[in-house]
């Protein structure tokens, strides 16, 4: 039976906890629900026990609607209060997945072949997107990718990139009553991090400023021991290439800490369609890892400002309006 209202489907998906790395149950649910609605559904292996889903209708789909089924922790169960859907994944991005399914079924009813790509791992290493990009299951006709993230129902003209990196300092343990006999790694790290706010970072006329924050801190072995080690995990939002950003941060550190780069994605300029309000997204997406799927567009209901919070939500009216918007986007982007 075709799905016309994204709300029940969004709630069904949100009832299943799917923190990144533990997406198996929600992928199985989505696979069953799509198959029941007549989609041709195939799994794209990502890692043991983890798969993306590719669902197609008709032959030779040109456009692909794609978003992710994984979420950040902690799990927050769904609830409807008045005209708002609350819970983990409401806007990032299970509500979006539900709206895309409904839009796909409308398009299918019009005889427009379309693909749905539901990936895992977006919130961490983008490994689901990388697996999909390399998959032989990708339709050879695919040339338009409409990615779903919460953009407040605007069409993003660009997204910042991202760089995760760890700073690690080494010291020498000693009894805390005799600090001169040791070398505090935590003190070294704190002094270094205190310079972050004064660091000159690149800016871009379209994408805005590069930003960086300290996400996690760790170090030491006990409160009465001079800390022999310390580390900070940082994330920068980029308007330049990850390579140039890493070089900048490495020059700033200047040997005062070890610099260990992590996952990175570049900034991206995106396509537009007449009739849609536009914006710039400061967050990173799967789009850089899905280059083989065609010209990228980015749109989604809800606000990134409430994603990743305990108050994550999306207005139900906006969620329902996204169905029409995705349908119009496919038609407009394909031409």
From TrEMBL:
Pfam families: M20_dimer, Peptidase_M20. Residues 157-252 form the Peptidase M20 dimerisation domain. The lineage of its organism: Bacteria, Pseudomonadati, Gemmatimonadota, Gemmatimonadia, Gemmatimonadales. This is Acetylornithine deacetylase. Coiled coil: none annotated. It comes from uncultured Gemmatimonadaceae bacterium. Belongs to the peptidase M20A family. GO terms for molecular function: acetylornithine deacetylase activity; metal ion binding. Gene3D superfamilies: 3.30.70.360, Zn peptidases. Keywords: Hydrolase, Metal-binding, Zinc. InterPro entries: ArgE/DapE_CS (IPR001261), Bact_exopeptidase_dim_dom (IPR036264), Peptidase_M20 (IPR002933), Peptidase_M20_dimer (IPR011650), Peptidase_M20A (IPR050072). Its cofactor is Zn(2+). Its EC number is 3.5.1.16.
